Amino acid sequence: MKITTLILIISLLFLGCGIKREDCEKNQTGEVVFNNNSQSGKTYDIIWDGVMIATVEPSKESKVFTYAANVPHKLVFRITNTKTNACTESTPILNQCQENTFSCSE
Length: 106
What we know:
Distance between the termini: 56 Å
Strand order of the largest sheet: 4-1-6
Helix content: 10-25%
Radius of gyration: 18 Å
Mean pLDDT: 87
Order of helices and strands: HEEEEEE
């Protein structure tokens, strides 16, 4: 009985991975995470395609976001409560079906 339960759990885990892979292939998406590597202890707002999507404290990372892959996006790390960019604005292109990580260390 224990072996059957273990096999069922492992099968469900693999099935779940396949569904996620199929979704990203079908929808042409990638995942993205943002890291704050600030040396000055400043918090960053993450501006993605002109929208503030997260605020990340020093030495922390954002939650995982899903966006269109294989197209350029606009990324700005901005020091929270200011109009000052912490790093140079960039136009990253997400890799499809992969987790992409971007960081800033102003």
